[in-house]
Amino acid sequence: MEPTGKKCTFDEMPDILSKLLERFDNLCALLRSNRTGSFHSDWMDIDQLREYLPGIVARSTIYDWIHNSGFPHYKHGKSFFFLRPEVDIWLRGKGKAS
After folding, report:
1. What is the pLDDT of residues 52-89, one digit of tens each?
2. Residue of 72, 84, 68 lying closest to 33 (CA atoms)
3. Is residue 21 included in any domain, yes or no?
4. pTM higher than 0.85, yes or no?
5. 76 in helix, strand or coil?
6. Domain assignment of residue 5, yes or no
């Protein structure tokens, strides 16, 4: 969930709060996992993510997840990066990778 600068309505607040709390839970899990693991090895670019995911996942599918399904990502310039523990949490929460 990236900041949009867009104002939200009262009716949108429950959905926004739900997404925010989910992101918070993901970050807490990430912090717990980094206490025992190597921080730098957890970062992946899109090609490393495609190798990590089960099955064959197209780049376009990952971009669709980013824009439409709240897939956890970080953008630096034009490139997307992903944290392995956040991806794992998202996949467990979705129960699928398609």
Report:
1. 998 889 999 999 999 998 899 998 888 999 999 999 99
2. 84
3. yes
4. no
5. strand
6. no
